[in-house]
Design a protein that fits this description.
With 62 residues, the chain is an alpha+beta fold. The chain contains 1 helix and 2 strands, in the order ββα.
């Protein structure tokens, strides 16, 4: 008999990256809940997403 166990992260995780063909996003709280972000956190995350989008657009140019 196998038992699966979900281990929640020990801290909040908010990240985005370009993975060669897709933009990956993770946003999860330390207890598995969605993240609550303040204005400055949202602005910083938008900048990170825009950087990923630029990388994606550059990767699709021939």
């Amino acid at each position: 008999m196998t038992q699966s166990t979900y281990l929640a992260p020990k801290q909040d995780r908010l990240d985005a990256w370009y993975d060669g063909s897709v933009i990956c996003i993770v946003a999860i709280g330390a207890h598995g809940d969605p993240l609550d972000l303040g204005e400055h956190e949202v602005e910083a995350f938008i900048e990170k997403l825009q950087a990923c989008l630029r990388q994606a657009k550059e990767g699709t140019k021939t």
